[in-house]
Amino acid sequence: MRILIAADTYYPQVNGASYFAHRFAQNLQAKGHDVAVITASTKLGREYSKRDGINVYGAPSIPLGAQHNFRNSLPIFTNIEARRVLREFKPDVVHVQMHFLISRAVIKEANKLGIPVMATNHFMPENLVHYLPLPAFARGWIARSMWWDCTRVLRHTKLITAPTDTAAKMMDAHLNTVTVSNGIDLERFKPNNNGEYLKERYKIPNKPILLSVGRVDQEKKVDDVLRAFKLSLEKIDAHLVVAGNGTERKKLEILARELKIDKNVTFAGFVPDADLPNLYTVADVFVAAGIAELQCIVAMEAMASGLPVLGVNKIALPELVHDGENGFLFEDGDINTLSLKMTLLLSDADLRKKMGTKSLEIIAHHDIHKVISEFEDLYQKLIDENKAKK
After folding, report:
1. Which CATH number is associated with domain 2-183+367-389?
2. How far is it, in rounded angstroms, from Cα 130 to Cα 139?
3. Residues paired with residue 324 on neighbouring β-strands, in sequence order
């Protein structure tokens, strides 16, 4: 099949949606499909590159405000580029990854050309609206408006997938939405990876290690992790590793010093993708405090690495973290409970082993090869239905 992926954010931009699109394209290409990606360019003008054997078309874009890692495509040029790429690449099916400018331009132009389009939704307003300097009621109104816009755009596709049942239920009931996991590469993320060299690189001590991975932004609530970790340090000797960059990093480094736990915290910054699977094996426990996760890829990576997970009881994380089985859930903002569960896991190797084994059992259902097969079936169904109409 010839598959065009439309991704408003794509690697090397760092976020869950970009990582999914990048790894998904790689896995489809590895299955023998001819894959191309249209995304925002890394400069003002249009661009073309070949990444991992995949044709990547960049629509003209500009930086998105303070979020220098994100770029916003330019509407007029995006429509032109979408039309050009579709005519040049001639896909059998189009798979858009969100509903923003690139995706909606591709949906519009693909429909004109009679090419079947499906979508996967990675969008949560909470990942964006908290950056707005507005009162809570105004941010709430904007979030609802953004959901309305999302459903308005995606209703022009033939099929929508969401990575969890929770995420699927959040979509408009009138949209054709099915659950298909983001998937995880169990051949890359596994318990027997070796991360000892990373201990030396980041000067990580030989103590029980708590790990947080992901964008260090406000909605990820790493500040709650730091405050809970301070309480745990009153009872155990442990170390926290925070991997990732973002708008909150400097504030968090200051907070760690104010809490007088900076000697027990390593801010590793961005960890290269090649090292990431090994980083998880340095840790003993993983924590995910983010409040806007439609699935949480980093939690899946941790589970595939055999780690127990501490996860906030919010949105879709409870579908991965089964409380008392492969980790513990805590309520958003409940620092005391989070600290108690941290202390329990970091001080009990047998419990960690038991829960880590359960993580491996749960994550086995999210094997990327199984996920790719599910998407291939959906693509073929859309292609066949499209041919039948002609």
Report:
1. 3.40.50.2000
2. 7
3. none
